[in-house]
Amino acid sequence: MCDEFMDEGMKVGILGFGGLGQAAALVLQGKRELSWVAVADRHGYAYAPEGLDLKGAIAAYQSTGTVGTMGVPSTQSIADLLGAAADVAGFFLALPNLPNTFFVEVARLFLAAGWRGVLVDALKRTSAMELMFGLDRELAAAGITYLTGCGATPGLLTAAAAIAAQSFAEVHRVEITFGVGIANWQAYRATIREDIAHLAGYDVARAQAMTDDEVEQLLAQTQGILTLERMEHADDVMLERLGICDRHQVTVGGVVDTRNAQKPLSTHMKLTGRTFEGKISSHTFTLGDETSMAANVCGPAFGYLKAGKRLHERGIYGVRTAAEVMPLFVR
Ligand code: NAD
């Protein structure tokens, strides 16, 4: 098959080795164009230029709480990894966005290290993404191509909205509704805490400060269900930046079942607008119910990483969103 974008073994790293980080490493097992060589979590990092051992990494993380036991324990694992692994061409940041400034702090570590390459995140909050836009010039000057909001929502569904908008002369509404089913909330602690931060009476600082027991107690009160409405989700600013609609015309909400791997509802994006003939209509993009959150986040993240590499090779640096760039399929 002809593929002008063919890559062989781009060396990539994963920052954060919780639910999404481990799923991302699993996704990479089936890919020959990307080679997983580096990983960091809160307590350590591991680096193997010839490729990391996934089973060993998961076993180390599950038994000791860090990949540092098979690599190097560290309390500044990202900075140390960057010092040890200069040849990694791209990273997927599967880190918690706690506090809300954390991703900007991580980006600054890459700047401080003088690193050049491609960074991809699955950032969710509008305010966090706006902070990242503020780093555009610095990242561009440093030779870093940073693609933000490259998960499912924001990410896959926002990009689908940007495509759906093309049929319309005017876009009136974009409604994103997600259903997430996970068997055990502790597999995705940051995701669940960040979701709790959207509930009435909570914010990022309060959710971050909650102990695991407090999260358990909250979930016990709701039978494990989190119902989220009008979330502060960056899909709004991503579509606004492209001139598709104003941010207030974008709504994001959903239901998370933390006790059942089955989705409580089908995840979909519905875009409503007016065509040039004056017809009002909607396009809907629905994800298959069998596709997990991990599949719909990690797949796009690596598709954007591959696209980011193409941009980087052409000297296109700085911050772009998942709605501005078409992801490439990774083989
Ligand atoms: P998690 O809690 O399961 O794992 C977080 C990992 O980050 C852990 O391995 C932890 O050790 C590591 N970590 C924490 N602080 C660190 C530090 N200072 N240095 C290095 N590593 C550190 O998290 P998760 O549930 O997999 O979620 C990861 C992120 O993905 C969250 O921010 C979540 O919001 C985001 N997410 C995005 C989407 C989307 O569609 N855009 C969907 C789901 C999750």
Protein architecture, described:
- The protein has twelve helices and 13 strands.
- With 331 residues, it is an alpha/beta fold.
- Helices cover 35% and strands 23% of the residues.
- An eight-stranded mixed sheet has the order 4-3-2-1-5-6-7-13, with helices on both faces. A five-stranded mixed sheet has the order 9-10-8-11-12, covered by helices on one side.
- It folds into two domains: 4-153 and 294-321, 3-Layer(aba) Sandwich (Rossmann fold); 156-288, no CATH class.
- The termini are close together.
- The structure holds nicotinamide-adenine-dinucleotide.
- Nicotinamide-adenine-dinucleotide is lined by residues 15-21, 40-42, 77-78, 94-97, 122, 124, 151-155, 188-191, 194, 293, 297.
- Residues 15-21, 40-42, 77-78, 94-97, 122, 124, 151-155, 188-191, 194, 293, 297 line the site of nicotinamide-adenine-dinucleotide.
Features of this protein?
331 residues, alpha/beta, Rossmann fold, 2 domains, 8-stranded mixed β-sheet, 5-stranded mixed β-sheet, 35% helix, 23% strand, binds nicotinamide-adenine-dinucleotide
Summarize this, please?
This protein is of the alpha/beta class and 331 residues long. It has helices spanning 19-29, 54-64, 77-84, 102-112, 126-133, 136-142, 156-164, 189-196, 204-209, 212-221, 235-241, 293-313, and strands at residues 10-15, 34-41, 44-47, 72-73, 90-93, 117-121, 144-148, 170-181, 225-228, 250-257, 268-274, 280-286, 318-321.
**Biggest β-sheet description:** 8 strands, mixed
SSE-based structural type: alpha/beta
Please name the fourth-level CATH homologous superfamily of the largest domain: NAD(P)-binding Rossmann-like Domain
- What portion of residues belong to β-strands? 15-25%
Architecture of the largest domain, according to CATH? 3-Layer(aba) Sandwich
- Mind telling me the CATH class of the largest domain? Alpha Beta
What are the segments in which pLDDT stays under 50 over at least 5 consecutive residues?
A: none
Indicate the mean pLDDT: 96
Helix content: 25-40%
Q: Biggest sheet: strands side by side, in what order? A: 4-3-2-1-5-6-7-13
Can you tell me the number of structural domains?
A: 2
Q: What sort of overall outline do the alpha carbons produce when their principal axes are compared?
A: globular
Write the CATH fold name of the largest domain. Rossmann fold
Number of helical runs? 12
Radius of gyration: 19 Å
The total strand number stands at 13
Name the bound molecules. Answer: nicotinamide-adenine-dinucleotide
H/E element order: EHEEHEHEHEHHEHEHHHEHEEEHE
Q: How far is the N terminus from the C terminus?
A: 11 Å
